[in-house]
Amino acid sequence: MGERGVQATESRRLSCGCKRWRCNSCSAAHLTSTVLRRSLISPVSIRFTMSLLNFPCRLLAALAAALKMATLAIAAEVPFFTDNGYGNPVSSLQHPAAEHYQGVTYVAYQGPHEDPYVAAYNHATGKWTGPVQAGVNLMGKSPDQIDPSELDNHGKPALVIDRKGYIHLVFGSHGGDPKFGKNPLGEFFMGTKGKMTHVVSQKPGDISAWRVVDNLPPFGTYNQWVKFPSGDLYLFYRHGGHRSDWVYQKSTNDGLTFSAPVSVLKHKVSSASPAINDSWYAWFEPGLGETITASYVYHPCANPKHNAHRQNVYFMQMNARDGNWTNVQGDRLTLPVTKESADRFTLIEATGTVRSTHGTCHVDANGYPHVAFPVGRDIRYYRWDGKAWQKPVSVGAGHGRVGDGDFIVDSPLSVRMILSTEHDGDNEIGWWNTEDGGLTWTKGNILISSKVLSFGTTAIVRNAHPDAVMLLGSRDATEPHLYRRMFLVGARGPLGRLAAEASQLGDRLEAIKSLPPPNRAKAEAKKKKKLGLDDEDP
Q1: Rounded to 5 degrees, what are φ and ψ at 328?
Q2: Containing H/E element for 313?
Q3: How far is CA 411 from CA 283, 296, 527, in A?
Q4: What is the full DSSP assignment across 198-247?
Q5: Which residues are catalytic?
Q6: Between 43-51 and 33-40, two packed helices, what is the crossing angle to 10 degrees?
Q7: Maximum Cα–Cα distance for the chain, whole Å?
Q8: Cα–Cα distance measured from residue 10 to residue 430, given in angstroms and rounded to the nearest whole number
Q9: Is the entire prediction scored with pTM above 0.70?
Q10: Which value, in Å, is the radius of gyration of the alpha carbons in the chain?
């Protein structure tokens, strides 16, 4: 068991399959500080040490010194790269949160004050840089809060790297504050706030300094980047509070300027009832060639107040060459897509009273979509086989509570999915695999597990290195603050660093001691209101 109960299970195993600390065939060390730490204090090692009393003093002293150095080295390593994640620091909805570019994986997350922070891992040297604050979130409160209800958690950053190597973040808004003017594509509903903010690194591949580029509307939520090999950038987001259109803006000059917003999904009063507003939660991702996929769910928002129900799962795609959108059969759609049009042309499954949540979507070599949606307590996988949607299958069924995740399509029939699961007190992030097009799934390698920490997932790292496929936030329910350890995991488990480097809180824990305890009644009321919901409501 490692730092704060974390066990880097797969870090015990090299590509050769060896489980020992050092592999005889490739002479590479395993990153198993947890195993070593345990062995250094076990009764077996104590008995072994006692047997050394018969050795010459000089040899015994040398062995003791080596043991001390090894112990100090191990104790100095932690599996997380920083401890200054804050609140709900990451989500799969604001994506991507990380990208691998020219041998470095860059990650972005919500840190203190709900501000965006960026760190970078160099795969050649095995060294971390940062984290560095990249901007200011207007929704943040000072000092940092200890009451979860005081955080907004909707302004998390999405990251992309342009063709020149500059790093871009968009963050900081939950609909946008009315003080910034009229929102032409959405409503100021339930206290929208913040300002959608675009920042760019001052140098390519360098996270040390950032500048604001004020070229986007202030009204946005759930910012998502899509990047084409040509370098064209698309920014998708909800243009305001949840009673707003979903739109995209395109840049052909590395984010220097963007086209005007184009509405994709329409919000309006429902034709079924004036007491309901048609709203949406969507996820956009590159498809095959010059296409962009959209997987989404319907939100029948009660009028005049908000409710949290979501239902149904949908799919459509855009041809970026002409801007036309079609359903999976190729029928052209009229923009913006309404509820009536979505039901008629793009519906995958009607879930009725069973709640569905935004999913993830990727395509295979044929361009056929594979999608995964949380529906009820399941993760349901759907695949288009060229003629019809395959009957959905629940991934990880029978293995406890299954949470959010993302997946990689290796071939039309071979898919690898990373999911968070909780079973018998173990919180795990690990692979689930299918070789028959999703009809059956088997549990694969565990990337990280803990009995103390729970984990929040992101979308899979763009252009991921095998050692860094997903950025994770974590939560220790026993801690009286909202700071979170952040992990980057892959084939070797978590990519950690020295404890002194990972410790980034400074005097922040001291600064929050004077804050009053969380309002229990308020917290319970919020919990009941959001029972069974994720952290992205409304």
Answers
A1: -65, -25
A2: strand 311-319
A3: 22, 23, 41
A4: EEEEEETTEEEEEEE---S-S--EEEEEEE-TT--EEEEEESSSSSB-EE
A5: 154, 222
A6: 60
A7: 90
A8: 10
A9: yes
A10: 24
pLDDT by 10s per residue, the chain, length 538 = 444 455 544 333 333 333 333 333 333 333 333 332 333 333 333 333 334 344 454 544 544 554 454 444 445 899 999 999 999 999 999 999 999 999 999 999 999 999 999 999 999 999 999 999 999 999 999 999 999 999 999 999 999 999 999 999 999 999 999 999 999 999 887 778 999 999 999 999 999 999 999 999 999 999 999 999 999 999 999 999 989 999 999 999 999 999 999 999 999 999 999 999 999 999 999 999 999 999 999 999 987 777 889 999 999 999 999 999 999 999 999 999 999 999 999 999 999 999 999 999 999 999 999 999 999 989 999 999 999 999 999 999 888 899 989 999 999 999 999 999 998 899 999 999 999 999 999 999 999 999 999 999 999 999 999 999 999 999 999 999 999 999 999 999 999 999 999 999 999 998 888 888 887 666 666 555 544 444 455 5
What is the distance between the terminal CA atoms of the chain, rounded to a whole angstrom? 37
Structural domain contains residue 526? no
253 within some domain: no
Cβ pair 193, 177 in contact under 8 A:
yes
The two three-digit tokens of residue 425, written as one number:
């007190």
- Output the six-digit token pair for 499: 């404890």
Task: Give the domain extent around 67.
Answer: 3-76
Enter the tokens of residue 27. Answer: 């002479």
- Per DSSP, 418 falls in state E
**Per-residue DSSP letters for 478-489?**
TSSS-EEEEEEE
CB-based contacts of 181: which residues, under 8 Å, 6+ apart? 218
Q: What is the dihedral of CA 287, 362, 86, 423, to 10 degrees?
A: 180
Using alpha carbons, list the distances in angstroms from residue 124 to 121, 127, 157, 179. 9, 8, 26, 47
The enclosing H or E element of 527 equals: helix 520-529
Q: What is the three-state SS of 236-271?
A: EEECCCCCECEEEEEECCCCCCCCCCEEEECCEECC
Query: Is the residue at 529 inside a domain?
Result: no
Nearest to 390 by CA among 440, 343, 340: 440
Residue 377 lies in a domain: no
| DSSP H or E segment with residue 499 | helix 499-502
> 432, 420 in Cβ contact below 8 A?
no
Close Cβ partners of 197 (under 8 Å, ≥ 6 residues apart): 135, 136, 137, 138, 170, 171, 172, 173, 212, 216
Number of domains observed in the structure of the chain: 1
118 has which bridge partners? 108, 132
Instruction: Identify the DSSP state of 469.
Output: -
Give backbone dihedrals phi and psi of 51, rounded to 5 degrees, phi first.
Answer: -70, -15
Check residue 5 and report its DSSP letter.
G
Beta bridge partners of 311: 298
